[in-house]
Design goal:
It is built from ten helices and 15 strands. By secondary structure, it is an alpha/beta fold. The strands form three sheets. Strands 7, 10, 11, 12, 13, 14 and 15 form a seven-stranded antiparallel beta sheet that branches. Strands 1-2-3-4-5-6 form a six-stranded parallel beta sheet. Helix 6 runs parallel beside helix 7. The longest helix is centred in the middle third of the chain and has 20 residues. The two termini are 20 Å apart.
């Protein structure tokens, strides 16, 4: 899964790393995401999991993207191309987002199989709560497998089946089928923060910035927009070159931390568009140019995407996907 700019890591480098690690398929959620990979010279199969707009069909076909179908309109659109297209039919087994009912999914897949220009490459579904409710997930899997069995009884074969996201890949082995859609775990992050039984999982991303200024405050002085930080005693505050335009969420200011010189330090007041401030009074010798770690490790101190997510009242997925394009990415082999 390299959608959403490779979960914020960079789609093309993430795709190349996944392929080098043994992946045989890549998945995106829009046609432009698939085209980006093709323009980078990636030739392996790419599945668009989402909607294909009519205006994007010709580009998708030219790029040989595999396309998802889940309704009559989508199938009719693909038939207008009158050329070979790899198709994956999506079944709604309980997520109630994109997907055909099981019976309609069977009909759509049968029609795809019978069309001389279309090739049924896949039949798939998506789980709603695999990271928490395994009973509901198992029920979804049964619905999907029943539909797949009916499709095969009808004489339709030669396709791959897939259902498991990261959580189901880890927790529900019977859902792995022919292919798994590894997402968050591909980037070394736990689907659920308190899952501690994954000792080999290592975050792929470190997010760092630098100190751009250090000021000394007297007791009672305030910092930043809204004056949300007040020095209760003489204090030192470091300005850093990261703000909410970079993906450092405004809501993280109240409970969030960063790492400076190997020590965790709290934010001091509001996070601005381009900058934020840290209370560094307990860390000696902080100076302009010092590295600041927002996600990653410095010495004995570590912060994960989960920590930043918890501070902002969100999830690690949003934190990673929210790191904006203006943050430079550097890749180590």
């Amino acid at each position: 899964m390299v959608k959403a700019n490779g979960y914020g890591h960079g789609a093309v480098p993430a795709a190349r790393a996944a392929l080098a690690g043994g992946a045989t398929w890549l998945a995106v959620s829009s046609i432009p995401e698939g085209l980006e990979l093709r323009k980078a010279g990636i030739t392996e199969p790419i599945l668009n999991l989402g909607y294909t707009p009519p205006a994007a069909l010709s580009a998708a076909v030219a790029a040989k993207l595999a396309l998802t179908v889940y309704d009559r309109a989508g199938l009719a659109l693909l038939k207008t191309a009158a050329t070979e297209i790899a198709v994956h039919v999506k079944v709604d087994s309980g997520m109630h987002r994109l997907g055909a009912t099981p019976d309609e999914g069977i009909r759509l897949a049968t029609e795809v199989h019978a069309d001389p220009h279309l090739r049924l490459d896949g039949f798939w579904t998506h789980f709603a709560d695999a990271d928490h409710d395994l009973a509901f997930t198992a029920q979804q899997l049964r619905v999907f497998l029943d539909a797949r069995a009916a499709l095969i009884r009808g004489g339709v074969t030669g396709f791959i089946s897939h259902a498991a996201n990261s959580a189901a890949t880890l927790r529900l082995p019977e859902a792995r089928l022919d292919l798994v859609r590894a997402g968050l775990i591909l980037y070394g992050v736990r689907p659920v923060a308190n899952w501690r039984d994954l000792p080999t999982l290592r975050p792929a991303l470190t997010w760092q910035t630098i100190v751009t200024n250090v000021v000394s405050l007297t007791a009672g002085e305030t910092v930043g927009y809204g004056r949300r930080f007040t020095a209760k005693q003489p204090a030192r505050v470091a300005t850093i070159a990261a703000g909410y335009a970079d993906g450092l969420q405004w809501r993280a200011a109240e409970r969030g931390f960063a790492i400076v010189r190997g020590a965790r330090v709290p934010f001091a007041g509001s996070i601005s568009m381009d900058q934020a401030a840290l209370d560094v009074g307990a860390v000696p010798n902080v100076d302009v140019g010092d590295v600041v770690t927002l996600i990653g490790r410095d010495g004995d101190a570590a912060l994960g995407a989960d920590d930043l997510a918890d501070a902002a009242g969100t999830i690690s997925y949003e934190v990673l996907c929210g790191i904006s394009s203006r943050v430079p990415r550097r890749y180590a082999s």
